[in-house]
Amino acid sequence: MKILAAMSGGVDSSVAAARMVDAGHDVTGVHLALSNAPGALRVGSRGCCSKEDALDARRVADALGIPFYVWDFAEKFERDVIEDFVSSYARGETPNPCVRCNQQIKFSALSARAVALGFDAVATGHYARLCDGRLRRAVDRDKDQSYVLAVLTAEQLRHAVFPIGDTPKSQIRAEAAHRGLAVADKPDSHDICFIPSGNTRAFLGARIGVRPGTVVNADGVVLAGHDGVHGFTIGQRKGLGIAGPGPDGRPRYVTAIDADTATVHVGDVADLDVHALTGRAPVFTGGAALSGPVECAVQVRAHGEIASAVAELIGDELSVRLDTPLQGVATGQTVVLYRPDPDGDEVLASATIAGTSRLAGASGSRRPGV
């Protein structure tokens, strides 16, 4: 096959490209330039897609003897990932930019260009597996990235290859060293790639500006002021601007965010329990929508807790009823449904969380939009 290998400059994508070469495919490497100022995108192990990463990717391509190109996707990345991230926080949501990047950049724009140029598939260094067209968790559960890939359609997956999903990360590093690749010991990137400082609040504040509001308790009593709801997320405990714990001596957490009134609600940890949620813009990775209620496992963060649930498609939204509550679930996050399977959980669907609720009669504030 004619393969376009997406090469970030890290060890995972480098070994993925090498395995495609070993398999006898016609491989071309490509690095995505995602910023007009790439020199500012890496601070140690934070960030990615910098000039350093592009050079690392080129060196690996040279070692593998494959053609290598850099494609400029900076404008689209700014519009579809960074601006989406900022506007989502301004609405009081908690987005996952890695999900949007996979959806809008790596497996939409990149894949579409690759197919248009005659490539059969795009190979990446994601930890996930494709079995008969079905997206499954990686063998290395600690590195599994099926969650951030669950927004891909069946057609996009048809043109995708994940060469390292069947191998633990430690073995990938050992393989890179055996191949003599200089990136074998390169540290993994952490946090949000376009915020290498790690200071998300400062990044958002510079783009959104001051939008003052209040922090209130369950009784509506104003406890503090704030400069914008973008500085908060559901489940947050620190940095609330309030003096000490609640009257009962227990810590207080952000339980709801109302961007329309710039109000941040805080309460007890029990107020974070979520028993049901709805998801908009569902994607069914296998191509077929859910037919009736389906028992499944649910995950709402990339490496978060997994809960059993029953999900069904009602109209154009996913309705998910959890068997046991999850805590700290926020609108804007991605909910992913898995079919439990001894051979590796299969991804059934994903959606963007639009609302959450508690069991009738449960104490605590009701979340906006539910």
TrEMBL record:
The active site is at C101, C193. Residues 143-145 are annotated as: Interaction with tRNA. One of its GO terms (molecular function) is tRNA-uridine 2-sulfurtransferase activity. It catalyses: S-sulfanyl-L-cysteinyl-[protein] + uridine(34) in tRNA + AH2 + ATP = 2-thiouridine(34) in tRNA + L-cysteinyl-[protein] + A + AMP + diphosphate + H(+). The record marks H126, Q333 as: Interaction with tRNA. ATP binds at A6, M7, S8, G9, G10, V11, D12, S13, L32, G125. GO terms for cellular component: cytoplasm. The keyword ATP-binding applies. Its EC number is 2.8.1.13. It is found in: Cytoplasm. Belongs to the MnmA/TRMU family. This is tRNA-specific 2-thiouridylase MnmA.
